Batch of 2 targets.
Target 1
Amino acid sequence: MEANPPVKKSIGVSRTFSRGIDDLQALHEALSSYVERASEKLRKDGLRAEVMEVYGMSNRFHKADFYYNTATFRFPVSTSDSSERIKGAFAAFETVYRENIPFKKLGLHLREITREKPEQTLLFDKIDRDQSCALMKALDDVNSKMETRTINYASSGLSQPKRWRTEFNLKSPAYTTRWDELLRVL
């Protein structure tokens, strides 16, 4: 047990799709969802990150037309604000995306992570950091009290079902870890 655990070096979120996706809108929805998850992890631990790396790849088993690319986005100020991160992720993804290439995997890594306080700001910052912090706290409070993903950004997609979501068709009932399910079966 450590009184002051060291700050994480990086946070990553990525998923592999069941089939390749070449629709830019669907890829933006997936990327936005991943940014929200990574930002929630940052805020939960009281952290901020200054650098975000976005990457995408096609099916690695198709050697002839395999594609992999990555782009880095540096924020002017370390932040855990989801809206700032989503804008940065879309800007970075512009250099990664190629038309007619079905992406099989998409993800991001947050680096240069620091503690939330003390905060170094810009002299002429266009973003009200106190208001941003209050908004993110309210969003996290609602999502923790209600249900995960009760409130999320529209860029994460409003359409149902989402082609990029993980499918759990062959998942076991997990009776050993979900006691409510076990008691219901008995």
Target 2
Amino acid sequence: MKKIAALRKFLESTDYFHSEKLDAWAEEIEQVLRGKMEGNRVLLCTMNYRAVYSIEDYAFCKYPFEILHARLITWLADNDDRSDMKDREPRITCDLMDDEIADIEIALNFEEDVYITEDENGDIEYFGKTWRLDAPDHDIAESFDLESQNE
């Protein structure tokens, strides 16, 4: 669940609130099994989950809700392809504590592919081999040989 951690790190970097006032967790985790060979690795599953971020004592008079929301939307646009997702829009709930402070909850869905790569030192057993988790980045061919079948 790399995306929930990356967004948490980003939200903390805004300095709009004290980092100890932020909590994050995942809900409704669902794994769709794939088992699809993709070159040197296997797309094992796709993990879908709801990420929830709770910010206590957010000073909305100093940092308007709109700026936090705009920063969230632009981070998602730059860091997460949400075009094919169901329920791709974040949901934000504000509980006003007084005229300056609010508790905020942000909930949004994430989708992440889980890959494994064969590794004799890995700790995952699959089809009689040993594997390790792999980064979801895609392999990029640096070169190739093209052979013509028409002679």
